């Protein structure tokens, strides 16, 4: 799982196995260590919501996807989900949850678990 934060925008990208884990377990997390502390980012299926939500609690950002969608998503062509969440102070937090596609340029990282990139078909 990858996370990208820029201003008031949070984007998660999940590989095929991570999307499958979310469907099966309803939860997936990653951690980054910082000298004895850990920054955690997680995605969780949640009942009784209709769109993406997020919370920042302790050292953890959790992105919530409607439970119904977490079950359907792995087997669908849908790339992702987006929402502009209004915060208590009136600001908006842009949320995006996407399937992670294979990059079209050369990368050193292992991309074997990423989704095939639809743009790769049009480039051949």
Please give a structural write-up.
It is a single chain. The protein has 124 residues and is α/β, with parallel strands linked by helices. It has a single domain (2-123), classed as Gyrase A, domain 2. It has helices at residues 16-25, 67-72, 118-123, and strands at residues 2-6, 9-14, 27-34, 37-46, 53-57, 60-66, 80-86, 92-99. The strands form two sheets. A four-stranded mixed β-sheet has the order 1-2-8-7. A four-stranded mixed β-sheet has the order 3-4-6-5. Strand 5 and strand 6 form a beta hairpin. The mean pLDDT is 88.
Task: Write the topology of this structure.
Blueprint: E1 2-6, E2 9-14, H1 16-25, E3 27-34, E4 37-46, E5 53-57, E6 60-66, H2 67-72, E7 80-86, E8 92-99, H3 118-123
Parallel strand pairs: 2-8, 4-6
Antiparallel strand pairs: 1-2, 3-4, 5-6, 7-8
Name of the level-1 CATH class = Alpha Beta
CATH topology (fold) name: Gyrase A, domain 2
Number of DSSP strand runs: 8
The rough form would be described as: globular
Helical residue percent? Answer: 10-25%
Whole-Å distance between the termini? 28 Å
Radius of gyration: 15 Å
Binned strand content = over 45%
* Overall pLDDT level: 88
| Discrete helix count | 3
Strand order of the largest sheet: 1-2-8-7
């Amino acid at each position: 799982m990858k996370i990208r934060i820029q201003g008031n925008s949070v984007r998660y990208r999940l590989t095929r196995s991570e999307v499958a884990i979310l469907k099966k377990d309803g939860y997936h997390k990653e951690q980054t260590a910082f000298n004895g502390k850990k920054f955690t980012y997680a995605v969780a299926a949640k009942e009784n919501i209709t769109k993406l939500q997020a919370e920042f609690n302790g050292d953890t950002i959790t992105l919530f996807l409607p439970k119904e969608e977490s079950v359907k998503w792995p087997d669908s062509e849908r790339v992702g989900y987006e929402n502009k969440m209004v915060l208590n102070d009136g600001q908006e937090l842009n949320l995006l949850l996407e399937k992670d596609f294979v990059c079209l340029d050369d990368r050193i990282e292992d991309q074997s678990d990423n989704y095939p990139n639809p743009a790769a078909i049009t480039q051949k």
